[in-house]
Amino acid sequence: NSKQEAVATMAVGKNKRLTKSKKGSRKKALDPFLKKEWYKLVAPSIFAAKDCGKTIITKTQGTKIASDGLKGRVIELSLADLQNNESLSWRKVKLCIEDVQGYNCLLNFHGMDMTRDKVCSLIKKRQTIIEGNVDCRTTDGYIVRMFCIAFTKPQDNQIKNTCYAKASQVKGIRAKMVQVMSDLGTKGDLKSLVKELISAPIGEQIEREASGIFPIKDCYIRKVKVLKKPKFDVTALMEWHNDDSGADTGTAVKPETENLVAGSGGRL
Question: What does DSSP assign to residue 86?
Answer without folding.
Answer: G
